[in-house]
Design brief:
- InterPro entries: YjbR, YjbR-like_sf, YjbR/MT2646/Rv2570-like.
- 24% of the residues lie in helices and 28% in strands.
- By secondary structure, it is of the alpha+beta class.
- It folds into two domains: 116 residues, Aspartate Aminotransferase, domain 1, CATH 3.90.1150.30; 120 residues, ph1033 like domains (ph1033 like fold, Roll), CATH 3.10.590.10.
- The strands form two sheets. A six-stranded mixed β-sheet has the order 7-10-9-8-6-11, covered by helices on one side. Strands 1-2-3-5-4 form a five-stranded antiparallel β-sheet.
- The longest helix is centred in the middle third of the chain and has 16 residues.
- The chain starts with a helix and ends with a helix.
Length: 253
């Protein structure tokens, strides 16, 4: 539906101070949103035949392609309205129907993730023993149940680039709590996926051993901003000062 596309684009233009472009002469209705001062886009809007997405119907459908990561994209594709990306890398891009199946607010949230992924890709780093924070969205993944079901409180997670055995990993829960909820470390890396037919599977996984449950702590996003940490839409490093203060507050409880 054109009004959904219009709403999403207008919200993006306002938030990111950009303007949608029509880059394809042969496909005049297609639009893209680009990272400011860069050529790469983070959203592609177009109409395609429904059968291109595996929908057994005639006619066209309006979609948007957004970038995420293999874990989130695979999880999304288990829900109505989400499909392996059309004409993009299917492991970390997803096509979303703009016909009302997916709520506009959910699309806007994923649009921000796509912007962050395209604007700040993880760069290769030669050193290990790093401290990371990764987001977990309770709308798509019940991390608490997963940990409770694990005999040794471990999580099988999509293997991120530059994450290595021994690295510290903090897990941040997105809305509603928006705070750090667990600390652990990578006990195994580059684990081959046992079932590539699973919709959320990736080529390799890593195992995160959970050491501390920090749900009773209040290291929220607003508090982390005091340490220079911005919105957590993907994996990123944590300042050592923040890590030390969090661990100190844990001892005082």
């Amino acid at each position: 539906m054109k009004n959904i596309r219009y709403f999403i684009i207008k919200q993006a233009e306002k938030k990111f101070h950009i303007h949608a472009e029509h880059p394809f002469r042969r496909i005049p209705e297609a639009q893209v949103l680009r990272i400011p001062n860069k050529k790469n886009w983070f959203a592609l809007f177009m109409k395609i035949p429904k059968r291109k997405l595996g929908i057994n119907e005639e006619g066209l459908v309006d979609i948007v392609n957004l970038k995420s990561d293999e874990f989130i994209s695979g999880t999304l594709r288990r829900n109505p309205g989400y499909f392996p990306a059309y004409h993009m890398k299917k492991s970390n891009w997803v096509s979303i129907l703009l016909d009302g199946t997916v709520l506009s607010n959910d699309i806007l949230e994923l649009l921000e993730i796509s912007y962050d992924r395209c604007a700040h890709p993880i760069q290769n780093r030669p050193f290990k023993d790093q401290t990371w924070i990764i987001p977990s969205n309770p709308k798509y993944y019940d991390i608490h149940q997963e940990i409770e079901n694990s005999p040794d409180h471990s999580l099988l997670w999509h293997q991120y680039p530059n994450f290595h055995k021994g690295d510290t990993v903090f897990i941040y829960e997105t809305a509603p709590s928006q705070k750090i909820i667990y600390e652990g470390y990578i006990s195994e890396e580059k684990i081959p996926c046992s079932d590539t037919n699973e919709p959320f599977s990736s080529k390799q996984n890593m195992l995160i051993k959970i050491l501390f449950d920090d749900r009773s702590q209040e290291f929220t996003l607003s508090m982390m901003k005091e340490y220079g940490v911005g919105p957590i839409r993907g994996p990123r490093h944590l300042p050592e000062e923040l890590v030390q203060d969090l661990r100190a507050s844990r001892k005082n409880h």
